[in-house]
Amino acid sequence: MKSKKINIWQTKFILPALTESLKKLNPLIMISSPVMFIVELVTIVTTVIVVFDIVSGRSIAFDLQISLWLWFTIIFANFAEALAEGQGRAQADSLKKNRSESVAKRILNHGGTEIISALQLKKGDMILLEDGDTIPGDGEVAVGTALIDESAITGESAPVIRESGGDRSGVTGGTRVLSGKITVRITANPGESFLDQMIGMVEGAKRQKTPNERALNMLLISLTVLFVIVVVTLKYFAAYMGVHVTVAILIALLVCLMPTTIGGLLPAIGIAGMDRLLQYNFIAMSGRAVEAAGDVDIVLMDKTGTITLGNRMATEFIALTEGKEKELFHAALLSSLADDTPEGRSIVVLAKEKLEMRGSDIRAPEGSVFFPFSAESRMSGIDWNGHRIRKGSFDAVRDFVSAKGKQLPQKVQEIVAAIASEGSTPLLIAQDEEILGAVRLKDVLKEGISGRIAKLRQMGIKSIMITGDNPLTAATIAAEAGVDDFVAEAKPATKLELIRNYQEKGHLVAMIGDGTNDAPALAQADVAVAMNAGTQAAREAANIVDLDSNPTKLLDLVEIGKQILITRGALTTFSVANDVAKYFAIIPAIFIVGYPQLRILDIMHLSSPESAVLSAVIFNAMIIPALIPLALRGVRYHPLSASALLRRNLGIYGLGGLMLPFAGIKIIDVLISMLHLV
Amino acid sequence: MTTGNWLCLILFPLILTIMAFPMGEYMAKVFSGGRSFLTPVLSPVERFLYRLFAVDPKEEMSWKTYALSLVLFNIIGIAVLFLLQLIQGFLPFNPQQFGAVRWDTALNTAISFGTNTNWQAYSGEQTMSYLTQMLGLTVQNFTSAAIGIAASIAVIRGFIRKSAAAIGNFWVDLTRTVLYILLPLVIIVSFVLVSQGVVQTLSPSIEATTLEGGKQVIAVGPVASQVAIKQIGTNGGGFFNANSAHPLENPTPLTDFLELLSLLLIAAALPFTLGAMLKNRRQGVAIFAAMMVLYLAGLGVFAWTEMRGSPLLEKAGVASGMNMEGKEARFGVVNSVIFAQSTTVTSCGAVNSMHDSLLPLSGLVLMFNMAIGEVIFGGVGTGLIGMLSYAILTMFLAGLMIGRTPELMGKKLELFEMVMAVVIIVTPAILQLVLSSVAISTQAGIASLGNTGPHGLSEIIYAFASTSGNNGSAFAGLNANTIFYNLTTSLAMIIGRFSTIIPALAIAGALAQKKIVPVSTATFPTTSSLFIFMLVCVVIVVGALTFFPVFTLGPLLEHLLMAVGKTF
Questions:
Q1: H helices within A387-470, ranges in order?
Q2: Distance from CA of A653 to the nearest CA of B (A)
């Protein structure tokens, strides 16, 4: 996997974002971010007050500065959102670049083809692709097999095979046919393909808020309502106490108390989460799926292709008679020369290694006849030099040997049983009536898989392996990979059943799949990741597509999901904790003239009441741009226990949020009095 | 401070804890339909009542039906009490020949007792006939407490049920609360009170000749039974105006201790009921611990302030040491402090001293207790509901910060629960701020004030904090028996009550429908000390952010001005 991070801090991104943030001042757009919408309303009031000041000839210095900084607060928040959108668009564009230029050869009803622009393609169109063609849109191979370069999308340089019928029939727009001739059925209108859908999700206007985001938004609105009432009623309490508080100062207090930091950065956090998905070559069908990924506590993984490399490999030869190892190696090598199965090839590789003939080209000896594998014989081998060398399962080889009237040595059975008991598959090798020894065929784990599974466990996610193997084999692989549980002898329907059962118990289940028979289970899973190389059915049933087709990337997905939530929570806590310091700045400022005793609340020793209010407002505005990098990058996720993680984030964002503004407001106050701004 | 005082401050919370745990377990058994030692005696009565009112105890209600039954029952009770006061002059058991209660006072009283507030704008012994006291006020003392407890049990069911549509049967919960919980406790407590000299009679007031030869009218009546339920049900409405400071309501230190214990018992036991019903007792302990931490913190500040005494009296040479002003000599400072702290954290509101005479910072503690919505033990039932709402808010933030969509006790917290919890937390705060600001800026509001300046502000805020939180204790110093205050406090009480109970039942209904998320290593344990710490912080931060300005202008400013010799 290659992460293609775009550096957003360039003029070409910043300038358009600035323009965009001014456009977003339009109240009709602002209303989608209710907290900032209210800030805009009260800011307009302060602006009107400034106008009245001018008309009535009063000093405008203070009111004007408050009003300006409130406008900055809104613009900074808009800027964060615009920047995140820009980043998403750039990320998507880099994926999309190839497709807009491509043309397609559409197959006409009578059999001929016509060349049209890729944008004119419709769902259901059949197109012809030959060597060197760029695939114009997402689709499914209907006829033929081809070697395809997907590096434009995945960054992976090795080409992949896509063929009709199987589980590898899906093709993505923007990839290129290296060799082969295929007919592809287009499965999405150009405007609906995965990438376009994703681009829609990073653009604020079209973005649908996720359920969690809506709940948080409601909390922020409630806090805002509460603070509006606190501030409005304060005017009357103050009046009773003989203190007149100006509207400008009340508005300054209100905006400082409102959760503007999180309210302003909330859209940017969500969009930036989508951006990160694109960076990791994921395409999500909904923001909801991404958040659910952070909650997943069960992951179902196919053994083959996810945990193991997919094929059994020869890992050991066991000779029946000591000292006759060389003969066994030779016989194994010869018997597998013509065996084109992955198992056969792995035997050749291992035998060559044992005979120290690596790299040398081995050909079948003169006058030899191959005996290919057949369903009846269940053996393969070679007839050469009057000898018949055979390789096959225990039963087949036993029948072969005993047909010649030879008794099977006791030791053979012991070897076979030993191999099987360790979850591997034994193959016997015989020369004529003599059994030379056995080959151990073993499932080989993907590199690094056990480390990733261990990390899943650290995150609190239980991994379950599903396989059609017998329980013994399954248990061995499960133990080796370190999965928490496994289901052996599984049928395609088992997956669906399993997911339902876990969901019934309240778990959130993630499932990774690529085959058509995975589709029902994918549709049932809470987080369904389809490999891009998988079938169209699988991709449609999923809610996330992994362009790299790398199942272990689920970890990254979970992290991205968690990061979005953590960033929201951390900034909400930070925002609310900030209020304490702002109270200590503004409340004494309001009442200190009438009641000098309240000076004890002025623990920051600010230079003047005006400076105190202005400092709080400036701090409140400046904290937004200061936190944009954090909002875009996301708070880092550490695979710690929930308590440790909470303690850490509470320490940083809760306690930090409590302390930081005291220092920040004081510094701004010193600057203000140095510059004589009030 | 003497050793005895220290002992009181430490022993009382300890005894409360020891008693609350078995009480909580017992209530869990009652509401789970299990058998207890009272079942043989009470279940025939229970079955008879169900037959009488044609209630099918097996029938389960959706949250909406439950809420509708509850609200109708409560409103009808309030209406009956209102009418009873208006026609008491024509009814028996009225030896003092009291006429109809003034309409606004009657309305206020009806709402007050119906909502478990027991704010008393009137003087009981000079207004209410014995019939009104017994059939009206005492009945409401039982039912309003039972309604609160029933609602909290429904909320607990929301947490324990899985993919369920119903949250219990209101009539069954109500009946069981009264029969198995309130009545037995009241009977025990009343007898002890009577043995200590609390009166229980239907005779009219006694006329006595004092030592100087003057005439004194000593009001008596069926006091003990009403006092028992006013404490046990966190109602707080005294038979006499002086409430538990009155020698015939609270004669001895033993009755004082008993009244104190009974006003906290059920509220403190309900977290344990939650734990028992969840089959996760540590969860109950955690919620209880959060309440206890807040209780002790307030008590600490409060006791420290009162023990230090008033700097002014000291300077004037009138008194030194503890602040005895407004306290009964037979209870002393410490017992008065524990009583006042307990009565304001719960929604009881019974008093054994004059809160108006407390030092400003003590008043601040009491107002804070009520302002945060009565969640430190709180009213019976509603306290647990309030604290669970804060727990929902806490876990919403905590869940986000650990990267999970939030959950509490295995239930996912989504938009609906979030909004309802916020309504429960925020409505009383908004009510007190809005109504106080209306009172403080209108002639009708200001006219009732007994004091000026920050103390006057405190009196008004206290009144609305007390009524919005359904506490009912009075700061005194404010003449609340005016049309303006009777109507505004009625509004505060009725909104304060239903803005807690209805959203709580809605939460119960929504939660019951959800699955229960199994615990994994990624689940944040809501039984840990970190959870307790965070919950306590959220309660304090929400309270502080809402009331910082107004508490600054009221009690804090008064405290600072007192230091420079200014009083109000």
A1: 394-402, 410-421, 449-458
A2: 10
Distance of CA B552 to the CA centre of its chain: 25
Query: Rounded to 5 degrees, what angle do the CA atoms A661, A666, A671 make?
Result: 125
Residues B557 and A597 sit within 8 Å (Cβ to Cβ): yes
b/e per residue A269-293 (b: at least 16 CB within 10 A)? bbbbbbbbbbbbbbbbbebbbbbbb
Q: Tokens 């004037």 — which residue?
A: B316
Rounded-to-integer distance, Cα B535 and Cα B392, Å:
9
Residues 473-532 of B with CB under 8 A from A: 515-518, 520-525, 528, 530
Q: What is the pLDDT of residues B239-266, one digit of tens each?
A: 777 778 888 788 888 888 888 888 899 9
Predicted TM-score of the model (pTM): 0.85
Question: Which residue type is seen at A249?
Answer: I
Structure tokens at A389: 């060398």
Q: Residue B279: left if φ>0, alpha if ψ -120 to 50, beta else—which one?
A: left
| Rounded Cα gap, residues A347 and A441, in angstroms | 9
- Which residues of chain A does B521 touch, with a Cβ-Cβ cutoff of 8 Å? 457-458, 460, 641-642
Helix axes A554-591, B382-401, angle to 10 degrees: 120
In 3-state terms, what secondary structure has residue A464?
Answer: strand
Of B403, B446, B544, the CB nearest to A566: B403
User: Which residues make Cβ contacts (< 8 Å) with residue A109, sequence separation at least 6?
Assistant: none
In whole angstroms, give the CA distance from residue A110 to residue A343.
Answer: 45
First-to-last C-alpha distance (Å) of chain B: 29
For residue B367, the one-letter residue type is: M
> Does residue A476 carry a pLDDT above 70?
yes
CA angle at A660 for the pair A659 and A661, rounded to the nearest 5°:
100
- B470 sits in the region (left: phi over 0; alpha: psi -120 to 50; else beta) called left
Instruction: Name residues 282-301 of chain A within 8 A of B (Cβ).
Output: 291-292, 294-295, 297
- At what angle are helices B360-371 and B453-468 packed, to 10 degrees? 30
Helix axes B281-308, B253-278, angle to 10 degrees: 150
In the annotation, is A383 catalytic? no
Give the DSSP per-residue string, A348-359.
HHHHHHHTT-TT
Q: Which residue has the tokens 């065996």?
A: A339
Helices (H), A337-409: 342-354, 394-402
pLDDT at position A433: 79
User: Are the CB atoms for B389 and B372 separated by under 8 Å?
Assistant: no
Annotated active-site residue in A149, A167, A196, A302: A302
Angle of helix B529-551 versus helix B382-401 axis, rounded to 10: 110
Contact B338/B254 with Cβ under 8 angstroms?
A: no
Cα–chain center distance at A122: 29
B422 and chain A in contact, CB less than 8 A: yes
This complex has an ipTM of 0.92
Length of chain B: 568
What residues contact residue B551 under an 8 Å CB cut-off, 6+ apart?
A: B364, B367, B368
* Cβ partners under 8 Å of residue A133, min gap 6: A105, A176, A177
Phi (first) and psi of residue B16, to 5 degrees: -60, -45
pLDDT of residue A3: 47
**Mean predicted confidence (pLDDT) in B326-352:** 80
pLDDT of A157 reads 60
Find all residues with CB under 8 Å of B3, minimum gap 6, and list them.
none
Comparing CA positions, the residue from A260, A348, A354, A186 lying closest to residue A571 is A260
DSSP B199-221: -B--S-PEEEE-TTS-EEEE---
For A453-475, write each residue's pLDDT tens digit: 888 888 888 899 888 777 888 88
